[in-house]
Amino acid sequence: MLQIKNLHAGVEGKDILKGIDLDVNAGEVHAIMGPNGSGKSTLASVIAGKEEFELHQGEIVFEGAEISELDPEERAHKGLFLSFQYPIEIPGVSVTNFIKTAINETRKAKGLDDMPASDMLKKIKEKADMLEIDRKFLSRSLNEGFSGGEKKRNEIFQLAMMEPKLAILDETDSGLDIDALKVVANGVNKLKSKDNAVIVITHYQRLLDYIVPDHVHVLMGGKIVKSGGKELAHKLEAQGYDWIKEELV
Amino acid sequence: MSNLKDKLVSSYIAFEDYLGHDSPIHELRSDAMKVFEEQGFPSKKEESWKYTSLKSLEKTNYSLFPKQKEKHIELKDVREYFLHDIDTYKIVFVDGVYSSFLSETTHDSIDVCLLSAALNKSKYQPVIEAYFNKVAEKDSITSLNTAFAKEGAYIHIPKNKEVEKPIEIINFSTGNEAAVMLQPRNLIVVGENAHVQIIERHQSLSENAVFTNSVTEIFGEKRAYVDYYKIQTDNPTASLIDSTYVSQQQESHCRVHTFSFGGKLTRNNLHFYQYGERCDSTLNGITIIEDKQHVDHNTLVHHTAPNCESHQDYKGVYADRSTGVFNGKVLVDKIAQKIDAFQQNNNILVDDRATINSKPQLEIFADDVKCSHGCTIGQLDEEALFYMRSRGIAKKEARALLMYAFANSVLESVKIPELKQRINKLIAKKIGVSLGFQL
């Protein structure tokens, strides 16, 4: 589904990502872990097409097509979804209106008509219930005055509504208490299928107890320095990152 | 010396003779003409006109008393400029002359009619004497209007009367001549505990030049509620100086909303005077302009009594080489304690070449007041754009959505749903997108 080959990217000519290789197949869950400043969020942003980052070398292939020249919205239309670490507040646009616009714009790009209003309402209700989201919440301005947990839950709500092929969850666990974490993880698990894939970016192993990864990668200094199964996450939780640094030396 | 000024001065004598010297406002007119003759059009040397030049208007050969078109304007051709989905009173002028065909006036317990009638019929004389030109400033541009004041809307709502239908005041210009100057004069008196909603538009029906110098006086008596909406979406060849003066008595609520999307040059002088305790004044505006359009908001709220409030919220979005001005003054007299005055002016410059000059001024002589003001000038938030685009919303629509969201706080306070919907559509049209939902 996603093949990243020798990806070098950064800002102002300087590499933040220094040669990333990553293969994600349909049906898989990948976790990317690493200390602060290792390039995890940059990787997520580069995949999603944030314009402030330059791609210096390498390629990003999604569903068989090179996407690094595409606009962020075109990548979204192809089925890529980034759940933001810090979702943006947009006063004056309600959660419902925002998601309706996102879905219908995506349908428009595919040459489809708007989703019928009744189908939209039904879907909103179903996904809101799954994530234990209060109906009142949906008429509030997008992310405005939301708690950290509410913002993250709202990201997963949008993920559930958009049903992407590949979801990248950037630090979705930060700001969540354990109950909210379970609800969010449960939501992600329900959306998982053999046809889609998830990349979980996180500091901590905590979320991975609920969203169990098939592969765990350690990102340090802009490179994936170690990959393994879910047991790697447990080892990192218990021992930190120092032992990997030592291994590298 | 300017051409237009000369023309106005020399036309005035004939105009005066034509109207007759026994008019109840004859002396007011003559005095006003003297002021204009002495001062002429305001120049950029004056502080409050620093960023708005009238030079190109002064050089244009405007017809001052436009010839009348022989044919009626058909209702179907101008229907879109009315709030046609609801029932309203209408006071309509075509090239400065009242159109009974397009209007729907009334004298049934309220007066929704013409200033010319009020000026000429003796039964209105007490109202004219009590109110006409009483709150209007005596600056040169307002004086020019006073000197030539002949026609406009006259609205008098007596005590305790709640007017259910909104009143529309529409000034059409047909482009019958290459360039015309219009000077409508409106007088609106809202009695004690009376309620009224008014919508005002100036609309040219051709690409010929029009220069409108409009003056409106609004009087809100005790506990009166006045909601006034100005829709400024005229053609790019139209220029407008709109001076609106509001006088408020105790516990009255007056709100003026200004939506400036059109025109070549628009100058709004919007001045509020609070003369009683517990008054509430609201001045809201959305400006969205492009190309070389220019919109200048000059506001004043003068608090002369204690325990009052004022709220100003002006939003502006400027594209291309457009220029905006916000010059907002709040004046609190020494006696006016416990005032809560709020002023906010937020601007987005969509292009590097667009300009906004924002100047909040607070002059406070009382010591126990709450006054706050804020001004921001920025660009569309890149992070927010990326966020929306990453959810599949294309760049153009994402920008539009952000602009909508930005202007929304002002739109929310529009109390007539059909009007709100109309303004929504006007904004969508201006930005060039259809979003498929109402905010």
From TrEMBL, chain A:
Q: Which Pfam families match?
A: ABC_tran
Q: Please report the name of this protein according to its UniProt entry.
A: Fe-S cluster assembly ATPase SufC
Alphabetically, the GO molecular function entries are:
ATP binding; ATP hydrolysis activity
Tell me which residues make up the ABC transporter domain: 2-246
Stated family: Belongs to the ABC transporter superfamily. Ycf16 family.
Alphabetically ordered keywords of this record: ATP-binding, Nucleotide-binding
* UniProt-listed InterPro entries: AAA+_ATPase, ABC_transporter-like_ATP-bd, FeS-cluster_ATPase_SufC, P-loop_NTPase
Q: Which Gene3D superfamilies match?
A: P-loop containing nucleotide triphosphate hydrolases
From TrEMBL, chain B:
A single GO BP term for this record reads:
iron-sulfur cluster assembly
Spell out the coiled coil positions from the record: none
InterPro entries registered for this protein in UniProt? Fe-S_cluster_assembly_SufBD, SUF_FeS_clus_asmbl_SufBD_core, SUF_FeS_clus_asmbl_SufBD_sf, SUF_FeS_clus_asmbl_SufD, SufBD_N
The SUF system FeS cluster assembly SufBD core domain extends over 176-406
One matching Pfam family, short form?
Answer: SufBD_N
Q: What sequence ranges are listed for the domain SUF system FeS cluster assembly SufBD N-terminal?
A: 24-169
Family membership, please give it. Answer: Belongs to the iron-sulfur cluster assembly SufBD family.
Q: Name it.
A: Fe-S cluster assembly protein SufD
